[in-house]
Amino acid sequence: MGHLNLPASKRNPRQWKLLDIITAIFFGLVLLFFLLVFTPLGDSMAASGRQALLLSTSDPRQRHRLVSLVELGHHHKPIEACPANSVDHMPCEDPRRNSQLSREMNLYRERHCPLPDEMPLCLIPPPPGYKIPVQWPESLHKIWHSNMPHNKIADRKGHQGWMKKQGPHFIFPGGGTMFPDGAAPYIEKLGQYIPLTGGTLRTALDMGCGVASFGGSLLSEGILALSFAPRDSHKAQIQFALERGIPAFVLMLGTRRLPFPAFAFDFIHCSRCLIPFTAYNATYFIEVDRLLRPGGYLVISGPPVQWPKQDKEWADLQAVARALCYELIAVDGNTVIWKKPDGDSCLPNQNEFGLESCDESNDPSNAWYFKLRRCVTSTSSVNGEYPVGIIPKWPDRLTRAPSRALVMKNGIDLFRADTRRWTRRVAYYKNTLNLKLGSPAVRNVMDMNAFFGGFAAALVSDPVWVMNVVPARKPLTLGVIYDRGLIGVYHDWCEPFSTYPRTYDFIHVAGIESLIKLPGSSKSRCNLVDLMVEMDRMLRPEGTVVIRDSPEAIDKVARIAYAVRWKATINFKEPESHGREKILVATKTFWKLTSSH
C-alpha cells in the first residue's frame, strides 16, 4: 500500500486509472444498495421482476391479426402461455410501469392501464406447485403455500397474528396490527358501541385491510365487508384475502373517487390504514363521507387517534368530523367511533377546512375515473330513503325494491321482474345445467354485468359472495345493489380488472357483447378475445364460466373459448325465458407450463 504515499507527480498513470475504477465501483455499489433498501424503487423492482418479459410487446399488426384469427376460429391452436415470471401479473397495477409516476396523492399506486396493443396476448400460467384452493370455510384459516409462495407478510407480520407458514400451508390466526390477539375481541369491543348484530348494518368497507381478517370475522355477524388495499410493499395481501374466500379488491385512495356509488356502506372501518384523512383540505375524509350511508358508522383505529406525537393530526381529524356534524360515539384507547347524521350535514358553516356542499351538477354516484371533489355530498342529491335505521334490516332489504331503482324508468317494476327472472334462471343453472353453485367448490363469484344484482340475490342461501360489477358506461345501478345489502364496483370491461390472477371460482356474464359495445351502437370499443383472456386471468383452474347471449355471440365466444383452453358446451336457455339466448358453460382447464418456458 506504500504507493498511496507517493507525491501526486510520482504516481503511475495506470495506478491512477485502477484506483479510480475501483473507487467508482465501490461507491456505485453503495449507492445502489441505498436505493434498493431505502426507497420505493427497491419494492417496485422486486415486485415487478417477475413481469419484465411482459413489458416487451409484439408488433401491434401481428397482434391484430392474431385477434382476428382467434375470433374467426382460424387459429387452430391455443393462445400462447405468458412467461413463467408473470404468474401474479396485474396489467393496471404494474409496479414497474407505475413507479415512474408522481407520488403526489399516491397517484403512482392507482390504476394505470396499458393500451391493448401494449399488452402481449397470452394466458397467465399458474405458479409451479399450484393446487386447487382449499375450500370454504376451511380456507378462512388456511391456504396452500405453493399457490402464492410469498413469505414477506408472514415474516414481517407473523408476530401480529396476520399469518404464519405451517407445513404446506399458510395459516391465519385472525390477527392484525391493531388486534394481534385476533379480530374477535376487537369486534366484541366495537359491538359495545355499534349495532353489529341484528341486521341493522350489512355493507361494510374495510380500508387498508391487510389479509382481511377483520372482514372475514364480520361474515359470521351477517355483515358483508368489502376489503381493499393497494398493491404495495407487503406483496399480495389482497391475493391472500381472496384465496381465503374473503371479499377483497385491489384499490388505492389517491386522486380519484373510489369506484362505488354514494351512500353505499353502512359501516366504514380503518385499522391502521394510514390514510391522511385531513390532508388536502380533508379531501379523503370527504370521500369517506360520500361513501358512508347517512346514519352509518365510521371507525378509525390507530394513528392518529390518541397517538404519541400526533396531537395536531388527531385534533384536525376531530375538527373535520365536527364540521360535518358527526356524532362522537366513543374514543376507546386508540379507536374512535363516529356516527354520521341521518340528514344533511350542518354545512354551510364556518370551518377551518373551507368545506362546502357540492352543487347540483355533481352526480355523487359517478365514480369511474372521476377526480376527487373537495365538496361534501348532500343527502338530498340522491333520491330515495336510504339512511341506516330507515332502510329495511337484513335480510328483508334484499328483496325490497329500493327507491334508488328509479334511476331506471319504471325501475320498481323492473326490479321485481329482474328478481323473479334470476330466481328462475339460477334454479335452472343448478337443477338442469348441474352447475356447482351451492357446493363447496364455489366461493368467490363475479357477475360481470350485474344490473340490479338479481343473480347475486338468487344465490343468497349459498356459501358464496358475489362481486357485482356494473359497467361504467351503463346506467348507474350500483346504488340499488348496495341498498339490497350486496356489494360491487364500477368497471369498464375494455380494461383489465383490479384483481390478481386466479381469484374467482365462478364468473357469470349476461350479454357479453354489450360489455364491449358503445351504448346504443353496434360498434365495438374493444374485442372479445382480450376480454376472454382477461376472464381467464381472473379465473381459477377448474373454475366455471357462464355466458348468456344471442346464438351469434355465443358461437363467437365458443371459438374463442377453445383458444383460451376452456372446455365449453352450448346449452338452451330455461324454457320460461323469452328471447333467443343461448348459454355457454365452460371450465378452465388446469394446464401447467412446459419446461420450454
Automatic annotation (TrEMBL):
EC code(s) of this entry: 2.1.1.-
Protein name (record)? Methyltransferase
Q: Which family does it belong to?
A: Belongs to the methyltransferase superfamily.
Q: Which residue ranges run through the membrane? A: 21-41
Q: Does the keyword Glycoprotein apply?
A: yes
* One GO MF term: S-adenosylmethionine-dependent methyltransferase activity
Pfam families from the entry? Methyltransf_29 (PF03141)
Broadest EC class assigned to this enzyme: transferase
Location in the cell reads: Endomembrane system; Membrane
Which SUPFAM superfamilies would you find in this protein's record?
S-adenosyl-L-methionine-dependent methyltransferases (SSF53335)
Bilayer topology term: Single-pass membrane protein; Single-pass type II membrane protein
Q: Which InterPro entries match?
A: Put_SAM_MeTrfase, SAM-dependent_MTases_sf
Primary subcellular site in the record, as a coarse category? membrane
- A biological-process GO annotation: methylation
Q: Name one GO cellular component term.
A: membrane
Q: Which UniProt keywords apply?
A: Glycoprotein, Membrane, Methyltransferase, Signal-anchor, Transferase, Transmembrane, Transmembrane helix
